[in-house]
Design brief:
Length: 382
């Protein structure tokens, strides 16, 4: 915490703004808030349940699927584990920003495998000044010092490996991780997906040719692509992993990849808005029919779908015009694009009507109502 305090006290200008708004710092703050909420002795069972319900630990503290006498004890033990992990994750966030003449550490970094960022055991990832993975031995520690990081370990020097960066009309700054594999216990890191980097580059070029604004949104809000190759799995993102897009690349066309990158970018942006202020007054009960899922969904899910699929509809509309003009060779059959666009227009108009109904019922916050106006405006432009 002293390293954090002194770094924030001395870093100024764009570097300070970049640190505070970076996906790494936002992810660290999210993890710290979760650990603090679970460790709060004054919280009752319902508050603890709410704090943990949205994360990956629910089955761990409720192995029987219901609240029982052991719930608070298991939650307290989990909170201690998460708190220790939070402090272990902080030094890499602050790396290369240490004030002149200062030294912090040594620290024992979090070297556990992390399937949600496709890291193997012993890997430590840095994002500034280069995007790279540092491979350390068990028991290694690091010190933060002026202008750099000092590694302390036995048995040889650490291995530094730059991450692959996706090229799309120049170097995008978006890193490509190894594959993630879904298991019953969550995600685990697998092997690299060969030949994926140039395909993603083509997807970015297609996006830029179709919709310049959407292309720049992807560059601004996506820092890491974690590929999956699984039948029946849709691409996704997680609120506590800002900028990390999990893209299922199995059987995808270049337009599909461009669509997925844009769709997850929209989720990242909306998650960022929700960090600032709530958008819905929602108890999580299914209320409105989702045209995309064909079932009832809570209001929060309807709002996310309407926001993100607006991006898809804009991409399809622009791509279709370029396809008619013969300017993009990487597109599938134009009739398929036209059918998908027609579906999105109908689905979006239906969901905007439901969101307006929710607004009349007082289920949207003021910020949510403002966002709905923007969604409705963009739907009208499609």
């Amino acid at each position: 915490m002293r390293a954090l305090e002194e770094t924030l006290a001395t870093v100024r200008g764009p570097r300070r703004a970049g640190l505070l708004s970076s996906p790494e710092m936002r992810a660290w703050l999210s993890a710290a808030e979760e650990a603090a909420a679970l460790a709060d002795p004054a919280a009752d069972d319902s508050e603890l349940f709410d704090a943990i319900a949205g994360g990956p630990y629910l089955a761990r503290v409720l192995p029987g699927g219901r609240l029982d006498r052991g719930f608070r004890g298991r939650t307290a033990r989990l909170a201690r584990v998460l708190r220790a992990r939070v402090f272990a994750r902080l030094p890499p966030v602050l790396a290369f920003l240490t004030p002149a003449g200062s030294r912090f550490g040594p620290f024992s970094p979090d070297l556990a495998a992390d399937g949600e960022e496709a890291r193997l055991h012993g890997e430590l990832r840095f994002w500034f000044p280069i995007r790279a993975t540092l491979r350390l031995r068990s028991g290694a520690s690091i010190e933060l010092e002026d202008g750099g990081v000092r590694v302390i370990q036995r048995g040889g020097a650490p291995r530094l490996r730059p991450l692959e960066i996706v090229d799309g009309c120049g170097r995008s700054g978006i890193a490509l991780a190894r594959r993630a594999i879904s298991t019953r216990r969550g995600l685990t890191a697998g092997a690299e997906v060969r030949g994926l980097r140039p395909l993603l580059g083509r997807a970015l070029r297609l996006l830029r040719a179709s919709w310049e604004e959407g292309f720049h949104e992807v560059l601004a809000h996506t820092r890491l692509i974690v590929p999956l190759s699984e039948r029946g799995t849709v691409s996704f993102s997680l609120p506590d992993r800002p900028g990390v897009s999990f893209i299922n690349v199995r059987g995808k066309s270049i337009l599909d990849l461009a669509d997925d990158l844009l769709h997850e970018t929209a989720h990242h942006r909306l998650h960022g808005l929700e960090e600032l202020q709530p958008l819905v007054v929602d108890d999580g009960e299914p209320r409105y029919h989702s045209p995309w899922r064909g079932s009832l969904r809570p209001l929060h899910g309807i709002l996310h779908a309407a926001y993100t699929f607006t991006y898809r509809a804009h991409l399809l509309g622009r791509a279709l015009r370029l396809a008619h003009a013969g300017r993009i060779p990487d597109l599938p059959d134009r009739s398929w694009i036209a059918r998908e666009l027609a579906f999105e227009r109908g689905a979006l108009r239906h969901s905007v009507g439901d969101l307006e109904d929710a607004g009349r019922r007082g289920l949207l916050t003021r910020a949510g109502s403002r966002l709905l106006l923007r969604i409705a405006e963009r739907v009208g432009q499609i």
